[in-house]
């Protein structure tokens, strides 16, 4: 039993190379698949994620079920992901190549022709994301773009934006001014005693 837990059954370098190769393959596949995440993962995306982890498991571990072998794979995945993340943060060109660029999907209240088809998004997904960001429908949007990480950034038209704290404060001050004027008018209309 202890032998199976701690003795790695394939060379450690092979385990590391397998893990890095599978990581690179998955990154490439997700890059080719396009941007998703607009409203989170849908049912089909979840199925792919669950099955994908099972499909590539043997490619990473090979003929090794040892605890130490699993730890080597886990440490390698975390280290490679950390290195890639740091690299992308420092190198905009690498980020553009590996993650892609933002795609404008709405401009001046109208869908950009072909953008949803290119991104494999349904109009209902886009409308839901717009409602989540305080818009009522596409016509309320000045600009919306899907970022490489799947986030939808929506800029509402000026007339559709919610009130800011400054707007509320200005309104409060105006109401106080009106109240003072009304109090003055009422005081001026009272007959003298």
UniProtKB/TrEMBL annotation:
The keyword Glycoprotein does not apply. Gene3D superfamilies: bsu07140 like domains. The chain crosses the membrane at residues 16-34, 41-61, 67-89. Residues 94-161 form the YetF C-terminal domain. Its main location: membrane. Belongs to the UPF0702 family. This is YetF C-terminal domain-containing protein. It comes from Streptomyces rubellomurinus (strain ATCC 31215). The lineage of its organism: Bacteria, Bacillati, Actinomycetota, Actinomycetes, Kitasatosporales.
